[in-house]
């Protein structure tokens, strides 16, 4: 997929609504230490569904919301909008918003969706919160030291088939449920004889 625009509001150090256009070619983000460069990468991961405190350098879910400074009060929500084109060239707009103490909600192209749908959308576009294309500090050493199974996951993601694993787990769950229903039905029918 291609990301064209990123909008942040109340996300970590980006307290004011901020918009970044990502042009074709190489994009570099420069600035002094602590100015928020890594927070941008985390915003991309977060809108893709990331919750892990380690990836987000945070403790709880609400820690991505601007926490306030000596001169500014904290915000009570954070929102990240990612606009781009999905793998097959379709326009894609994904929004994730979190309210303090109330959890987060997602929208894809204006429709309310579940976190799972967002993960599938990005997996089908051959990317996602754990994509090796999102290279944070220390990531290169991690890729070199990756175990074969982890390398395979990276290849599967690049090939755009990562979403199939989720669908397979879903289908297996439904199959087990149906088998249990059938067994129960057979018990009931035996009782009627
Ligand atoms: P470096 O070059 O040192 O890695 P960086 O430019 O990548 O720095 P980040 O690590 O992205 O900077 O930004 C860190 C800044 O974000 C810190 O100043 C930190 O106080 C601020 N920050 C992180 N979370 C929040 C939050 N919830 N509310 C307010 N500020 C936050």
TrEMBL record:
Binding site for ATP: 32-39
Localization of this protein: Cytoplasm
Recorded superkingdom: Bacteria
The protein's assembly and partners: Homodimer.
Function: Required for chromosome condensation and partitioning.
Family: Belongs to the SMC family.
Domain remarks in the Swiss-Prot or TrEMBL record: Contains large globular domains required for ATP hydrolysis at each terminus and a third globular domain forming a flexible hinge near the middle of the molecule. These domains are separated by coiled-coil structures.
Name listed for the protein in its UniProt record: Chromosome partition protein Smc
Origin species: Tsuneonella deserti
Residues of the full protein shown: 1 to 193 of 1141
């Amino acid at each position: 997929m291609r990301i064209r625009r990123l909008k942040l509001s109340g996300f970590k150090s980006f307290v004011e609504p901020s918009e970044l256009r990502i042009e074709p070619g190489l994009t570099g983000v420069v600035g002094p230490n602590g100015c928020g460069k890594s927070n941008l990468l985390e915003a991309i991961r977060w809108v893709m569904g990331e919750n892990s405190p380690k990836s987000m350098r945070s403790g709880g879910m609400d820690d991505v919301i601007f926490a306030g400074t000596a001169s500014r009060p904290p915000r009570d929500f954070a929102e990240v909008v990612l606009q781009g084109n999905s793998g097959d060239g379709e326009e894609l707009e994904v929004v994730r918003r979190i309210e303090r103490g109330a959890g987060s909600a997602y929208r894809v192209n204006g429709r309310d969706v579940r976190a799972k749908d967002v993960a599938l959308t990005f997996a089908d576009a051959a990317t996602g919160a754990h994509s090796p294309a999102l290279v944070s500090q220390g990531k290169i050493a991690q890729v070199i030291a990756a175990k074969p199974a982890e390398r395979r996951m990276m290849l599967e993601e690049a090939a755009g088939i990562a979403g199939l694993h989720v669908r397979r787990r879903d289908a297996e769950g439904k199959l087990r449920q149906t088998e249990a229903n059938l067994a129960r039905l057979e018990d009931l029918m035996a009782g009627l004889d």
